[in-house]
Design goal:
Elements (H helix, E strand, L loop, with lengths): L6 H12 L9 H12 L5 H5 L2 H18 L8 H39 L11
Helix pairs in contact: 1-2, 1-4
Length: 127
């Protein structure tokens, strides 16, 4: 009969999951192997899967590892990278200008509402 995982064992397992940096893909079996030394015995994947907090930590870490490993397009050289950065910065500036124009429009709209006596309770929608 397998020994029940103590709170201390679960804490060590969750810490091991959160600090996983192995180049190998994270699997339940590799996790069991890696925590064996920390808790003094090798748990089964089924026993780990019975604990919701361990499963949650495992799934979160898998999601983080998966997004880190997705292929990202990178510029071929520094010149291309500099051009891309410049293009993105100009795009950001355009968006900031658009936001500022919309903000000014909203302020003018609120002023017009106040001048006409329209109150928030008169409006049919709530933000």
């Amino acid at each position: 009969m397998a020994r029940i995982l103590t709170t201390n064992d679960k804490r060590k397992i969750i810490e091991s999951i959160k600090s996983w940096s192995s180049p190998n893909k994270m699997t339940w079996e590799r996790l069991c192997d890696s925590v064996a030394k920390k808790i003094g015995r090798r748990p089964t994947r089924q026993s780990l899967y019975m604990h919701k907090d361990i499963v949650t930590a495992y799934e979160e870490k898998k999601g983080v590892l998966k997004t880190k490993n997705e292929f990202k397009v990178r510029p071929a050289n520094l010149k291309a990278a500099a051009e891309r950065i410049e293009r993105l910065e100009s795009k950001i500036e355009e968006h900031v200008k658009t936001i500022n124009v919309q903000r000014e429009y909203m302020i003018d709209l609120f002023r017009a509402c106040v001048a006409c006596g329209v109150q928030e309770s008169d409006l049919k929608f709530r933000p």
